[in-house]
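We store amino acids, tokens; thus:
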Amino acid sequence: MRHLFMKIQVITTLIGFFLLNSLVLAEGAGAGLDLAKKVYYREDGNDSVAFGKMVLIEKGHKPRERVTTTYTQEKQLGEVKTLIRFSAPANVKHTSLLGMDTPDGNNNQWLFLPALGKVRKISSERKGGRFVGSDVYYEDMQDRHPDRDSHKLLGTKTIKGATCQMLESVPKPDDNSHYSKKLSCIHLKTLLPLNVDFYIDDQLVKSWQTVKMKKIQGYWTIIESLITDAKSSHQTRLITKNITYDQNLSDALFSRQVLEDPGAEKNFFRAAE
């Protein structure tokens, strides 16, 4: 009888342990999703117009600079439209990308190549393709809803004197993300990532870090960031020289017609001014 009592006691203890452990994991997952949603829904204006440059850095070569103009619009939560246009140098001039993300998680992208005079839709198989030879993948420019991943908090970390919360995000089984995992260090004051590590099959493929951030028109904004390829050490520096929020941009700006017409967006921007 004593042995039976001890057996029941052990089983009861184990059940209690597993229930407590499951509760802790569930709370951790819930807190992770909560933080991911706070980052996703943080205030960043109804639209924006940004002028900047992309710098490609490769050891033994002179840095290559590309001048960019980026237009964004969010009509409702999760409905994000983006138009990126290159104006220099000559080999990428007028190359443009149009992205449309919907609240249900659909992401569509179209690339205009002036040399071919045609538009190509970016297929899901090309999510891991490099945008104009940079360390930015097509998937990186999509608006990814937090419900598409499982999130978990992994404690805090200090980067250059700033404390941030580590957040692990793993795509759900039915998602076709190019990545197997992302580790983000979220600055809780601004809800901006100070660093993001990207993994494929548990191997680090690249790191993205915030170099400079600034509050503009009441919105915390990353004005300089650096992406480093883990294997080749090739880097891409993204610099925002000027950005203006809430310009009341027209829906018509984010269209295939404008995508294929270099310079057409300037008419919409002037009208917004």
Remarks:
- The helical segments are 2-40, 256-259, 265-272.
- The first strand starts at residue 47 and ends at 57.
- The chain has a mean pLDDT of 87.
- The chain has one domain: 40-272.
